[in-house]
Design brief:
The chain is built from 15 helices and 85 strands. The strands form 21 sheets. The chain has a 17-stranded antiparallel β-sheet that branches. An eight-stranded antiparallel β-sheet has the order 42-41-40-53-52-51-50-49, with helices on one face. By secondary structure, the protein is mainly β. Strand 78 (1146-1151) and strand 79 (1156-1160) form a beta hairpin.
Length: 1263
């Protein structure tokens, strides 16, 4: 007996209907039942399973309950206010709801599962005659429609389609939920096209315009859908001698009988189609291969390569591969790792163009496959390959040879002559120049390896593993001769002085050659030899599939033609989204043949008239768009969109002299930290906010000020550049090496010449030469939205002196000090009416060509710049500064350097202006001065990983041949470190992740080894002295802005007293690190609580005082901040607080809100005295007075620590020099002069103020 069953199942959200005749025997378990229907012809290359084997997803009760709620799967069974309720009588929703919960559980809440379940039930209801509308909007499940189409919830199932779109169709079926072509467009092979561009109908089949096909079974009649005639035309034809007529994947075609591959790898070493080997190190653009014969049936194409020096001028590696075919251009470049440029526009993987070309990722290699049979690959490191079908034999030319089966004539130059010289061969195929390129290696560094060096690098430790007869490639030796690969490896490793990265690259080339022809290789990477570190959510596999699963499902990849390759495979539950392994729920969208990551914004039309966003559930939503004021639709760095049409530049140089965005010039000599440029209106969130601040300090004789620091706050980071500190910046207080990439490349920080440059993805550029010159460049989209010393950037220089509240001023001092950061403006003004003035005679002297006048000399080294940047402004600034500091040569050189930087930043090529007698350059060991130095590209970091540098070049110290910069000094390549998460690490340097959950160290191999980390009890995760890590906990004591004391051990209460009190000190006054912190508590206004009015910090060597206005004195002298008091004692401004710090001892912060915090090292536990307690981790014994009496009143404790030397007295420390009379003490607290009495002691003069307890701020003494 048999039973006929019709089954409707929802599998992974997809409705499947099947009709089967089952045997009468029933299975007790659904898995066994399913297994019994397994067909015998399973694909052995793609193993399948009947149930989950390992790492099976689970769903706990809480998740199960969540997914059953009416906001999710429970919506299907909801009885009230439900979209689906009206269908319950026709179709029971329970099974659909159960499947929905199951799918969401197994896919970790992936909303696509919910949307597919709801769509499945809605579709079944529709078939029952019940149409449900509006549910997609309610549950956030938009249907993703392709280009030139839109969603309709009840459309005719008979839509106009090619080849006869005007033909009326009779439709009796119910309406369907689908994507409908926009007006004027019709369906052509599943794609919406203009109705006038339909293809042809021929013998019941539809063919796209221009499509070729064979009309018979022996490839004797070739037909084409003629786009002009709109009909099929046929002619007699046949396959070439190198082709065979076959049917593959249902399509008849002439297919090649063989293929040949040309490769360029390493330095580069070329292997032609016919097997000829040669080396060529040119760094221009060369034709690798192209069609040189007009043979019928061959698709024209061209592949070019651009090489560049990488760490050494003696070698060059492939940098960019450009492939032109089908009227499009694909570019794969090291400048855009793991992405491709499609007609100049950046695209993610995979990419499908017109079903003629696909681009995808295979292992670490980009693969381009075409229907013409041409395959191009590039690994973004050094290896490029071109595989051609046999029908191209004898029809191509270039560095890859002519593919005629004869290796001896492969070195055929463009003029048709043959040569045996690889350099001549390469130079002849040069097709374009790039700045600084050359086709021949020239210089002392162009030296071959010695025999002794070759012997060293042929050993197992280096390249010997390739030819090891018992090694991991032993099974490959018979098929792929290891000798030439070993030779290439030795050559490259020798040039890179044994750097393991070059070893690994060369060995990987041989491994790939073996795997490409299907030969099994064995594990060759070890912990101490080329270990592979994979990104998050992936793992290393020696033989991974050549066509990995991705978020985008390209039907053309269903049949994979790639052999297995070593790769980082996504972990289970993750898929490739571009080049990142993401959970399935975070997959992006496929649109018009391209893949977009979730959140990507793009413009599909040639003009920016429509903006699309890849949203969740793989849906693309588009809306009309228009570029805003200051924008233009164009391609910038591979991204098409509304980009700024221009930019504005603000400059601060020298004393400082300012040139605003709108060209207004002014001088302001304030010595605090000021807002240089800030976004004061983000245009309703359209503009990315940022702030650039500039810290100034007195310079030279104290009459002028210069920039001492620049800080850039953007994207949640604060990047702090310090005067005199090269190749390093502070990022959120952590000291990091340059170059540096943050936030997935949205921020890049590089050192170029003497300058540190911060760049963002939206066009902000901040340059600081760490001495004298600052430049802020903002895109034109910020016009009218800026504020700060650089002005509002509204193209009107007259209104640049705008104060923070919006009011205008004409006074430079008022304007400047209004933009002070963290300090009251009255202490941060400029020179006011006391600005230095230069006598005319001196001004004339300093304006001569042998001084500042060199910048404006008509035939001088800067003449090329005069037309771009007026030198008069810089000469004027130079004369002012040099005059103010008495003719200082350093100031002269810094001023001229400022103009040089401005010129080079504008792209001007300068002539050498320094000499042995005029501003000579000084460079460290193994480096030399260049007026156009390659500092950004000549680093260890750029050798390891591509960092984008500006096209401009700047003067600076460039490493000598054979050396690269490692962030500290010029070192041989084999001493280079590692790049980890966009940061460069020197060998042995350790980096701790932000949450202190892992610690990574840079090894000599150039790879980073990471291990788990957890902070011990008594430690906290944080940044201290520029280093992130687990640091020993510190003691904290504070006096709040309302006079509330909290001790080191947690005792707290009100201070309750007015006067000066000792809050913390080291009990042992003899110790070297002794310090003492005294606070003066006052009631500063009627009705206000007592608060700290002044803080005094005593060290053995110095006394620092700070009042509530953050005016600071060191040993009685007013100072500007920051100030380096001693080698280990500093005073600086940070986050609206003055910070007084002695390394490894104490840190005192005094905020603008009058809160004081004392932070001490844990090593001082039990050694403290003062109102803050003894810091012994026992708060109970803190309730003691200074003389040891127990009390329950905190104010009594504080009162017992009254600072006797402050009570109603002023103490002047120091040996008496003269007889003092008429002593007057002025206090800023109440702006009064007090008469004082005095008495003389041996070493001190005590002054007692009558009727007042005051803080001495200014002491005036008449003799």
């Amino acid at each position: 007996m048999a039973v006929s069953v019709v089954c409707v199942a929802t599998l992974m959200g997809t409705t499947v209907m099947s009709s089967k005749i089952l045997p009468a025997k029933l299975s007790p378990h659904v898995i066994e039942w399913g297994k019994s229907w397994q067909t015998p012809d399973q694909d052995k290359d793609r193993p399948c399973w009947d149930t989950c084997e390992k790492n099976c997803p689970t769903c706990d009760d809480n998740q199960y309950k969540l997914y059953k709620t009416e906001a999710l799967c429970g919506a299907l069974t909801a009885k009230t206010n439900s979209f689906f309720q009206k269908c319950h009588g026709k179709l029971d929703p329970q099974a659909f709801m159960n499947s929905c919960v199951y799918d969401m559980c197994l896919n970790k809440g992936d909303k696509k599962m919910l949307c597919q379940a709801l769509a499945s039930y809605s579709q079944q209801c529709r078939e029952e005659g019940i149409i449900i509308k509006g549910w997609r909007k309610k549950f956030g499940c938009p249907m993703s429609c392709q280009r030139h189409s839109h969603y309709e919830d009840c459309a005719s199932p008979c839509q106009p389609s090619c080849p006869f779109p005007e033909q009326k169709q009779t439709c009796t079926s119910a309406c369907v939920e689908t994507c409908v072509c926009d007006n004027g467009y019709v369906l052509s092979a599943g794609v919406c096209v203009p109705a006038k561009t339909c293809g042809c109908s021929y013998q019941g089949h539809y063919y796209k315009p221009g499509q070729h096909f064979w009309a018979d079974e022996v490839c004797g009649r070739l037909c084409e859908c003629d786009t002009t005639l709109r009909m099929v035309t046929c002619r007699e034809a046949s396959c070439s001698a190198n082709e065979r007529c076959t049917v593959v994947d249902g399509e008849r075609a002439c297919r090649p009988i063989s293929h040949a591959t040309c490769t360029a790898s390493g330095d580069p070493h070329y292997r032609t189609f016919d097997g000829r080997r040669f080396d060529f190190q040119g760094t221009c653009v060369y034709q690798l291969v192209g069609l040189c014969s007009e043979q019928p049936g061959l698709v024209p194409f061209k592949v070019t390569v651009q090489n560049d020096h990488r760490g050494s001028k003696s070698v060059s590696y492939t940098k960019t591969v450009t492939f032109s075919i089908y009227g499009i251009t694909l570019t794969i470049s090291r400048e855009y790792p793991y992405r491709v440029l499609f007609n100049g526009q950046l695209a993610s993987f995979p990419l499908d163009y017109n079903n003629e070309l696909i681009v995808f990722l295979s292992g670490w290699t980009a693969v381009v496959e075409t229907v013409a049979g041409i395959t191009v690959t590039f690994d973004w490191r050094s290896t490029v390959s071109i595989t051609l079908p046999s029908n191209y034999q004898g029809a191509v030319c270039g560095l890859c040879g002519n593919y005629n089966g004869k290796a001896q004539d492969d070195l055929t130059m463009r003029n048709g002559q043959t040569t045996n010289n690889g350099d001549k061969m390469g130079e002849s195929w040069q097709v374009a120049l790039v700045p600084g390129c050359s086709s021949v290696c020239q210089g002392a560094w162009c030296q071959a390896c010695s025999d002794s060096q070759r012997k060293v690098y042929q050993a197992q430790k280096y390249c010997g593993i390739i030819a090891d007869k018992a090694g991991p490639f032993r099974d490959c030796h018979k098929r792929v001769d290891p000798a030439p690969y070993l030779e290439d490896c030795v050559y490259d490793v020798c040039q890179y002085h044994g750097h393991q990265g070059s070893v690994c690259d060369a060995v990987a080339v041989y491994a790939s050659a073996c795997q490409s022809i299907g030969i099994t290789i064995y594990s060759w990477r070890r912990d101490n030899f080329c270990p592979m570190v994979c990104p998050a959510n992936s793992h290393y596999t020696l033989c991974a599939t050549g066509c990995p699963a991705t978020c985008a499902s390209l039907t053309s990849l269903d049949t994979c033609h790639r052999t297995c390759t070593e790769a980082c495979e996504c972990d289970q539950g993750y898929l490739l989204s571009g080049v990142t392994c993401v959970p399935v729920r975070d997959c992006g969208c496929s649109y018009d043949g391209q893949y977009y990551r979730k959140g990507d914004v793009f413009y599909p039309e040639s003009e920016c008239v429509e903006q699309c966003v890849c949203e969740e559930n793989g849906a693309v939503s588009c809306q009309k768009a228009k570029c805003r004021r200051g924008e233009i639709c164009k391609l910038v760095n591979g991204v098409k969109g509304c980009h700024p049409e221009g930019q504005g530049k603000c400059v601060a140089s020298g004393d400082p002299h300012y040139i605003s965005f709108d060209g207004r010039r002014f001088d302001f000599q304030g010595t605090c930290v000021y807002v240089l440029a800030k976004v004061c209106d983000d245009d309703k969130g359209y503009l990315t906010p940022f702030t650039v601040t500039q810290g100034n300090e007195k310079y030279g004789n104290g009459k002028v000020a210069v920039t001492k620091s620049v800080a850039v706050a953007v994207y949640g980071y604060v990047i702090y550049i310090q005067q005199g500190v090269s190749w390093k910046v502070l990022v959120d207080d952590e000291l990091l090496n340059l170059p540096l990439s943050l936030d997935n490349g949205r921020i890049r920080v590089t050192q170029e010449g003497r300058n540190i440059i911060v760049r963002t993805d939206f066009g902000l550029t901040v340059l600081y030469d760490t001495v004298y010159y600052v430049e802020v460049i903002v895109p034109s989209t910020y016009q009218g939205n800026m504020c700060g010393l650089c002005g509002n950037y509204n193209k009107k220089g007259g209104d640049d002196f705008r104060l923070p509240g919006g009011r205008q001023t004409n006074n430079v001092d008022t304007f400047g000090k209004a933009w002070v950061v963290d300090l009251p403006d009255h202490v941060c003004g400029g020179c006011g009416g006391q600005c230095p003035v230069c006598e005319q005679a001196k001004a004339t002297l300093y304006g001569k060509p042998d001084s500042c006048g060199i910048m404006s000399a008509p035939d001088g080294p800067f003449k090329n710049c005069h037309s771009k940047i007026d030198p008069a402004v810089y000469v004027s600034h130079c004369v002012f500064d040099v005059c103010a500091v008495g003719g200082s040569k350093d100031t002269l050189c810094n001023s001229v350097q400022a103009y040089a930087l401005a010129c080079q930043s504008a792209g001007v090529q300068l002539k050498p202006w320094r000499s042995s007698s005029f501003c000579p350059a000084s460079c460290p060991a193994n480096s030399h001065y260049e007026v156009c130095a390659s500092t950004c590209g000549g680093t260890c970091a750029s050798f390891i990983f591509p960092f984008t540098c500006s096209e401009s070049c700047f003067e600076g110290c460039q490493c000598d041949a054979g050396f690269v910069f490692d962030g500290v000094q010029c070192v041989p390549l084999d001493n280079c470190g590692c790049v980890h998460n966009g940061r460069y690490l020197t060998v042995g340097e350790t980096v701790v992740e932000k949450d202190c959950k892992s610690r990574c160290v840079c090894q000599t191999s150039g790879l980073v080894k990471c291990e788990k980390l957890s902070c011990d009890d008594g430690e906290v995760c944080g940044v201290r002295d520029g280093v992130r890590g687990c640091h020993v906990k510190q003691g904290h004591c504070s006096v709040s802005h309302v006079g509330h004391l909290t001790s080191f051990d947690g005792m707290s209460g009100s201070v309750g007293n007015k006067g000066a009190f000792e809050v913390a000190s080291l009990c042992d006054e003899t110790t070297k690190l002794w310090f003492r912190v005294v606070v003066d508590v006052r009631v500063c206004s009627k009705g206000a609580p007592p608060a700290v009015a002044t803080v005094y910090v005593f060290f053995k060597e110095t006394i620092i005082a700070v009042n509530s206005q953050h005016v600071t004195w060191v040993n009685g002298r007013k100072v500007s901040l920051p100030s380096k008091v001693m080698s280990d004692i500093s005073v600086q401004i940070s986050e609206r607080s003055v910070v007084i710090e002695r390394a490894s001892a104490v840190r005192v912060t005094y905020s603008i809100s009058q809160e004081v915090t004392v932070i001490i090292d844990s090593s001082l536990s039990g050694k403290m005295c003062g109102a803050c307690g003894n810091y012994n981790n026992n708060s109970k014994d803190d309730m003691k007075t200074a003389d040891g009496k127990i009390t329950t009143d905190v104010s009594v404790i504080v009162g017992s620590w009254s600072a006797g030397d402050f009570s109603r007295k002023v103490r002047l420390i120091g040996r008496r020099q003269r007889v003092l009379t008429n002593i007057r003490v002025y206090t800023e607290a109440d702006s009064r002069l007090y008469r004082v009495d005095w008495r003389e002691q041996q070493r001190e003069l005590e002054v007692t103020v009558k009727n007042a307890t005051i803080v001495p701020l200014i002491i005036s003494v008449n003799h």
